[in-house]
Design a protein that fits this description.
Number of domains: 2
Radius of gyration: 22 Å
Distance between the termini: 19 Å
Oligomer: single chain
Strand order of the largest sheet: 1-2-3
Largest sheet: 3 strands, antiparallel
Shape: globular
Number of strands: 3
Length: 404
């Protein structure tokens, strides 16, 4: 971010210094021995808008080359701020519904579960979009949307029972996981910006907790239980590749990715998850397989970020979305609620399963972090771009990166 701002300001004959915190952006501009400092407003959470990123890259390049004056640059920025998304809301909701359905299949669902998850995920996102237009509190939006998505999925399973009805609650909840703050939190930790990293990761934890509470309420309403102990089946590799690719489609539209770059997002998702599945078929454990798959996703994200001059998270999160241990995290929180409700009379088996889920969630999250950290920490990541800088415009997306 600092590099882009400094380069753009230099093209206008100024010197700029930028300080980034979780709460504010502090910009100081120096010209002719005088300076002016301005504080930018706080944005609760962000997603990526790749079309806006391209437009901002062009403005920054023209400014750095002296082709824009301040007045013309301001007009361009204001026009960009008012521009609409390339994709209509219904299309975004439909494709994220397809993402939820694909995740349900990867987790072992059948055809009825697939269809129900698609409907639940689409309705969930439509509700979320409306609540954001009303500027509701972000965590409240997360809870309500998770509750509605889980309730629709659970009621659908009541009407048309599937083999694994709990997936109709879990899969729609997965598309609410705040992927962008998670990726940024990891990058900030790599760059030793621990205050920013901890703030983002803490926010992500709050969002995941709100999702879990919403799903727990949905289990009470629908009577569809989310089992504490369950194993995720290994699909045939070709089938895994297909649904890993379709699971990323929703993020192509959510991130406003131009059609020419959509294939890169699909390739990241297809390669990383199918590679993990392949290693597990060969006898490797899920944590080690996740490290390998995430590392490949990170390498591809860095390559595509340089190729398309976009934030690495545009490609990194679609690459790891199917590996994010949201299912385990939801189960761990729900199991903890059961332990609390039993008021000290919990069976040793329930306590052990709860601890196992917590440990597995932490290990898988750490595996994704380590896998992404290795390529993101290389000198290749020192590109003239950043999610919030060359990536420029950010939208107030509440709590989702998808999702936040």
């Amino acid at each position: 971010m600092q590099t882009t701002v400094e380069r753009f300001a230099a093209g206008l004959g100024c010197e700029a210094r930028l300080l980034v915190t979780y709460e504010t952006l502090l910009l100081t501009v120096i010209s002719g021995g005088e300076f002016r400092t301005k504080v930018g407003r706080h944005i609760a959470a962000m997603t990526v808008d790749m079309t806006a990123i391209e437009a901002l890259n062009q403005i920054a390049d023209e400014g750095a080359q002296g082709q824009l004056d301040v007045a013309r640059a301001r007009i361009r920025f204001e026009a960009l701020e008012q521009s609409a998304s390339v994709y209509p809301r219904l299309l975004v909701a439909s494709t994220l519904g397809l993402t939820a359905a694909s995740l349900s299949w990867l987790f072992g669902g059948d055809g009825l579960v697939f269809i129900t998850s698609f409907i639940a995920g689409m309705l969930e996102i439509l509700v979320q979009q409306q609540l954001r237009q009303w500027r509701s509190q972000p965590l409240a939006i997360t809870f309500v949307t998770a509750l509605i998505g889980g309730s629709v999925g659970g009621l659908g399973m009541r009407l048309f029972p599937g083999s694994t009805p709990e997936l109709c609650l879990i899969a729609p909840g997965m598309i609410l996981v705040p992927g962008v703050p998670l990726i940024h939190g990891i990058r900030d930790a790599i760059n030793n910006k621990m205050d920013l990293s901890l703030a983002r990761l803490a926010w992500a934890l709050l969002v995941v907790t709100a999702i879990a509470f919403g799903l727990f309420a949905a289990t009470v309403i629908t009577g569809i239980e989310i089992p504490i102990s369950v194993s995720t089946p290994l699909l045939p590799i070709t089938q895994d590749m297909l649904f890993s690719a379709t699971a990323t489609i929703g993020y192509v539209f959510l991130f406003n990715v131009p059609a020419r770059a959509a294939w890169a997002c699909l390739l990241c998702g297809l390669t990383s998850h199918s590679l993990r599945t392949t290693t597990m078929h060969l006898g490797l454990d899920i944590v080690s397989g996740t490290i390998i798959g995430s590392m490949v996703a990170g390498i591809l994200a860095v390559i595509f970020a340089r190729r398309f001059r976009a934030p690495p998270s545009t490609f990194a999160f679609p690459g790891v979305v199917a590996m994010v241990p949201g299912s385990y995290a939801f189960r761990a929180i729900i199991a903890s609620l059961h332990v609390m409700h039993s008021a000290g009379t919990s069976s040793s088996s329930l306590v052990a399963q709860t601890m196992s889920l917590v440990v597995l969630t932490v290990l898988l999250s750490g595996a994704i972090a380590i896998g992404l950290a290795i390529p993101l920490s290389l000198r290749l990541t020192r590109l003239p771009l950043d999610t919030e800088a060359r990536g420029g415009r950010t939208r107030d997306m509440g709590d989702q990166s998808s999702l936040n």
